Prior knowledge:
About 30% of the residues lie in helices and about 15% in strands. By secondary structure, the chain is of the alpha+beta class. The chain has a single domain, classed as Alpha-Beta Plaits (2-Layer Sandwich). Helix 3 crosses helix 7. The longest helix is centred in the first third of the chain and has 25 residues, at about 10-35. Mean pLDDT is about 85; it is low at about 1-15 and about 20-50.
Amino acid sequence: MTGRPAAPRGIGHQVDEDRRRFLGVAAVSALVLAPGVSLLAYAEEQGGKQGASARTRWGLLIDTTKCRSSCTACVTACSSYNGWKNEGRPTDPQWIRKVQVTDPETGLSRSVPVMCQHCAKAPCVEVCPTGASFKRADGIVLVDRHICIGCRYCMMACPYKARSFLSEEISGQKPWAPRGKGTVEGCTLCVERIDAGQVPACVQACAREGSGAMTFGDLKDPASAISRALAEHPSVQLRADLMLDPGVQYQGVP
């Protein structure tokens, strides 16, 4: 019985090479464009200078005595850089928001920026049934949208109301801030900027357009600016009674 003639070895080999090359390009394209793409993969692809290490714990210190109620530089920068918009609807995302806090006894009032607090004992991570909510070795809490099923347990567990559920299709996404309908999202501390040796967008905007109320750095490094500032002046953690050990701390809160 005569079979179909086999293709010459050279031609078959070239087809295989072309197929592998095509699949490789497709995989990279999917990584960049998919709504659930890993932020860690993006940072690595861009040649990030730093990776997550347990030797570091990134933190943010906000001096509310410098934060003006009328200033929204941090919120605007986060929205613009990460591609989310809040138009006043209850379902709108809000990765960072300004909250007015007033002492009922003294009447002292402060404007307080609130975002994901990147807790060492993050309740969102504890309750997530799929592991989509996770904490990096350096303390940054993220959501892997590939495996987020939209159950919103993390939103209920977060005492800071720092996460949002994306219920609508969106366009014009930023490749470094992937978003997907049916998933939960929130502040990432601009992890891809940190891995590239830069500061979060909110911190940069506060320094340039605001009053320099934000200090970012390594909480484990006693020589860092944030550690020195914490040593010089008292600070508080929001809902310290919950013992979650947030990576975001505040000074001057009444």
